[in-house]
Amino acid sequence: MYQLPLEQWLLVWIQIAALFMLCAKLWRSGLRKIYPFFFSYLALEFLQTLIPLFLPVNGKLYMDGYVVSQGLIVCSYIFVILELYSVVLRNLAGIANLSRRSIKIFLVVATLPSLLLLRIEKMPDKLTGYLFIFERPIMSSLLLFVVLIAAFLVYYPVPIGRNVVIYLTGYGAYFIAESASILFLNNLGRVYNRWLSDATMGISVICLLFWLFGLNAGGEEKSVVVGYRWNPADEQRLLRQLEAINASLLRSRETLNTPEKDRSNANRTETMEQKAR
């Protein structure tokens, strides 16, 4: 245990305790069924936090275990963001479907340059190098979508559950800190790396405690409005605008999913009805 600085060992133990209690709370309250990807992400984080307790942090086995667990966690980030969009936009199915498709397409487009760079740049000599190449564009892309969903809720007065607000607020703060750590950790000196690691772990602990004390079964029944509180007179206009966009997207989706023959019959029926009138 002596390989890590004293303050980081203290933060590791706090993380372990907070993650264990949070997972247990989500399990007992039934929230794990409502937010399954969030629960899976927390379980993966808990298992990864246990690794330095059993393996020396400067050993190859620890690095291999970290790379594998971090790869799974990065994949879980994607599913958590998709889940967040689903729960925030659960009453706006058209916008939710468009958002999920956009996230998937954007992630593929963002990752392709990293694959191409592997062919022209020097190949990494460690597994952590490969992890960093794929982790950086994915984290940057997901950070953009976290900011977008937060901006959407600030602008549009969409009623959402209290738990969703706590879920998104904590995850947004954690994800920004984690993204900054990944983007800058390898570019700073060793002294600054320690400070950055301390700050990232500290923010992670704060977010875990925020979720632990904020999330509960009763929060699913309470609805709140975050956005556009500075001008309540415009709330109904914005909601009507949002519902119109959602309805238009749903109609477009139904049109695309309707076979050509059915569309022709529908058009023919509509024409005959117009002539009859």
**Which percent range describes the beta-strand content?**
under 5%
Count of distinct strands: 2
What class, by secondary structure content?
mainly alpha
Radius of gyration: 23 Å
The tally of helices reads 10
Would you tell me the overall average pLDDT? 79
Question: Can you list the strand order of the major beta sheet?
Answer: 1-2
Provide the descriptors you would attach to this structure in a database record.
globular, disordered C terminus, single chain, Rhopdopsin 7-helix transmembrane proteins, two-stranded antiparallel ribbon, 2 domains, 277 residues, mainly alpha
Summarize the entry for a quick read:
It is built from ten helices and two strands.
Write the layout of secondary structure elements.
Elements: H1 6-29, H2 31-34, H3 36-54, H4 60-88, H5 93-120, H6 127-155, E1 159-161, H7 162-184, H8 190-214, E2 223-225, H9 235-257, H10 260-276
Antiparallel strand pairs: 1-2
Helix pairs in contact: 1-3, 1-8, 3-4, 4-5, 4-6, 5-6, 5-9, 6-7, 7-8
